[in-house]
Structure formats: C-alpha cells, structure tokens
What does this fold into?
Amino acid sequence: MIHVEDIRKSFGETEVLKGVTATFETGKTNLVIGQSGSGKTVFLKCLLGLFTPEEGSISYDGKVYDDLSADDKRNLRQEMGMVFQGSALFDSMTVEGNVKFPLEMFTKQSPSEMQDRVDFVLKRVNLIDAHHKFPSEISGGMQKRVAIARAIVMNPKYLFCDEPNSGLDPKTAILIDNLIKEITEEYDITTVINTHDMNSVMEIGEKILFLKNGLKEWEGTNKEIFKTDNEAVTDFVYSSELFKKVRQMYIEERN
Amino acid sequence: MNYFESIGSYAIMIREVFKKPTKWKIMKTLILKEIDELMFGSLGIIIFISFFIGGVVAIQTALNLTNPLLPGYLIGFATRQSIILEFAPTFCSIIMAGKVGSYITSSIGTMRVTEQIDALEVMGINALNYLVFPKIVALMLYPFIIAIGMYIGVFGGWLATVSGGHGTSADFIEGIQLDFIPFHVTYAFIKTLVFAFILATIPSYHGFYMKGGALEVGKASTTSFVWTSVAIIFLNLILTQLFLG
Ligand SMILES: Nc1ncnc2c1ncn2[C@@H]1O[C@H](COP(=O)(O)OP(=O)(O)O)[C@@H](O)[C@H]1O
Ligand SMILES: [Mg+2]
It folds into this structure.
C-alpha cells in the first residue's frame, strides 16, 4: 500500500501538484487519470522518488520515505519497477540485455540463474523469440512487453506505469493493460498506472484517481465513474462521441 | 540560465560523476566500449588530418623561406615545433570537439529525451557515473592518439618537403632533431590531457541536462561543439602562458 499525504510540487513559478492525497492498494491496479498536462507524470515521478515534493509525505507500506536512511531509500528503490511512457529501453542493449541489466547491477546471481530469471519473465510477458533483437528492431507493443519484463525482473513490490498503452493500437493496448493487471494480482504488487485512455479505465480501473490542474478532482471505481455527476469527470469520460452516446443510452434506460 | 550558473552546475556535475560508483564488472565493459568508440574510432581522422596538416605546414614554411642564406634545416625545425606545440594537441582537439563531442552530446541527449536516464535513476544508479565516468577514462588515452598524430604530422611534413622538392631529406631530419626540448612534449601532453577532460565532460553536460525532443538534441550538439571549442581555445592560451610564458 502506498499512501500519499497532501503533496505539492512546483517547477519555478508553476505549481504542478497543489496538495494531492491518495491511497493505492496492494494487488490492485490503481489508475491516475486526467488530461495531458494535468500532472500525472510529475505525480508518478514523485512516487518513484525522482522528484521530491516540497510539501507532504509519501509512505510505502507504512515506511515514510523522508524518514528513511540513504541505504533504506536505495533498498526501497530496488523494490520499485517502472514502465516509462516511451518504454525507455536502453537502445545499446538487446532485449535480453535490457531485462538482465537490473540483475547484473544489483544481484550476485550466477549467469545461469540470471538467464533463467530473464527467460522466465520474458515468457511471462509472452515474448519468446526476441531475446537477441535490439529495441529498434521490435514493434511498440513488444517494446512495452520488454519494459514490463525489465520492471518486474527484480520482483518489485511497487509497479508504476506511465501511459503504458499510449501509441499502441487498441487491441494491443488492451492486451498490455490486462498483462499488467494479471501480473499485479499474481505477484500481489501495488500498481499505479497513469492513463488518459478510457478503454483502460473500463478494463482495469479498479481504483481511479482523477487529477485536474494538480488537484484530486474525484476518486472511485470504473463502475462509479459512469454514474458520477462531477462535471469535470463526465467531460473527461465523455470526451468521445461514442461514450456520449453510451451515456445517453444509459440515462434513457434508467428513466 | 546565465553563464555563471552553467559553470556552477557543470562543477556540481563533475563532483557527481565521481560519487557512488557503478559496479566494477559493469564499468569495465563500459570503459572498453568507450575506448573502442571514442579512441579507436577517432584514430583514422586524426591520422588523416595530421598527415595533411604536417605537409601543408612544411610547404608553407618552405615557400616563406625565400632567402637562400637561411639554412635548409629550418623547414624540419618549424614543422616539428608547430606540430608538437599546436597542431597536434589543439587543432586535433577542435576536430575532436566536432567528432567525439557531438557524438557524446547526442547519445546522452537521446537517452535523456527517451527517459533512459530516468530509467537508470529509478533503479538507483548514479546515471552521471554510469554515463560520463567511462568516457573520461577512455579519453585519458587521448594523449596516445595525439602522439600518433605528432609522428604522422612530422612524417607528412618530411614527405611534402622531399617529394615537393622544397628541401633534402637530410636537412629536414637535421631540423627535426635540432634544439629538441623534451619539456615541449611534456607541455603538449599536459595540454592534451586537459583537453581530453574537456572533450569528455562539456559535451556530456550539454547532453545530460538538455530538455525537449529530437530537435533539441541537434541543437544541444551544436551548442556543445561551440562551448567545447571555446573552452579548448581559452585553456590553450592559459596553459601556454603558464608553462612556456
Ligand atoms: N521537469 C519539469 N520542469 C518543469 N516543468 C515540468 C517538468 N515536468 C513537468 N512539468 C510541467 O508540469 C505540468 C504537468 O506535466 P505532466 O505531469 O507531464 O502532465 P501529464 O503527464 O499529465 O500529461 C506541465 O505543465 C509540464 O510543463
Ligand atoms: Mg505524462
């Protein structure tokens, strides 16, 4: 479980996060949604410790980040996995090299143990014959799978994904979403996913936090999001014509 | 950002590079890769430039020595002095600012804009140590490249002199042995080492702290070339005054 208490983050004059409080549960896919520029990435990078909020605190299973020693912070980092928006694979390394990298960096495993683990996670994300390809040689969907494999190779307790299905076709996007959900449940991970994709919301939105202009505008589940009267949320949810029609039908049915 | 702030954050970067070192097993392969890329990869261009610059310096000297009373060994002497003192260390470093410098800026810059640097930092890796330290170590071999450049330059001068009919081989060889001051070579290599450090770090700085996308990577490479050259030319003056003045 991750608990965020009233965090604020500014860049120079502009305040991006203006006091956000939230709780993310273990074994669930927690979504952070909102329009582009609403501060989702900044929020996620605060959770990762890449940005330090000026105010507020973040705790990971009860451990308050700011109170940890440098060593404990480093250990905590190794319990986190991150899937970046553009995958952020190291393009000088093969698929296998990318996934093996954290193991080589942080464990004392023997080469064969590492190989076993790499084979296992690559198989888990359904990549079997791309081991020796370079990131530039595989599709966007496959790159995402490699990024997920790299993020989970160290058995993380916390998994963060920044728009994991942006740039993917709708079918692949749903496969990636479901893969993240399965992995979250299978390994009991606290997963936080940034997205502005309504398909993801419907598919895996077990817990949703809606950010607007750096503030928490709404929170709930994907069942509740279609019923809310919050204007900002409905504006966001029904931004597409299709969804507007669906809502219209829903309201007619109810009346 | 103003210049003073930039110099300040450059200094902070240098300090960070030497903190929290990367596992040696991994660092070793990174260093070898950079030596291959940055040093062996530059050997060709350094040899090419040195050879022709050496030839041109010899010809120019010969053409300016129209007075028949001047001794023939002057061509060899002047060629050696200009190659060792300036052309090999300084001129080659400016070329390297273009070749090695823009390579460093664009490769680190690309890692920045594609969040690969964030990916390193998320894992708890000191990205500056991981990326910049192996480049600094690789460039410490730069004096060897320049030594080859010096040799080839003098050879180019000899070939141009003899084959162009500007002087005899014996005169040229007498010239390059004349009044040889070993400290000049020491001075040249000290200069080269300082330039090597500049060549590794200023382009890294411009790549590491860049913001934006692919277009900005291109711009950062250009800016980095300008500032690396400026730093080399400026330090050249300081070091020359310090050691020879
Ligand atoms: N490193 C940074 N420096 C300055 N401003 C930033 C930085 N990162 C993000 N911002 C600003 O914060 C705001 C929110 O950005 P972001 O979190 O990326 O939005 P989202 O991910 O929701 O699209 C934007 O206005 C952006 O310009
Ligand atoms: Mg974003």
Summary: The pocket of adenosine-5'-diphosphate (ligand 1) is lined by residues A 11, 16, 34, 36-42 (CB under 6 Å). Chain A has one domain: 2-222. The two ends of chain A are 40 Å apart (CA to CA).
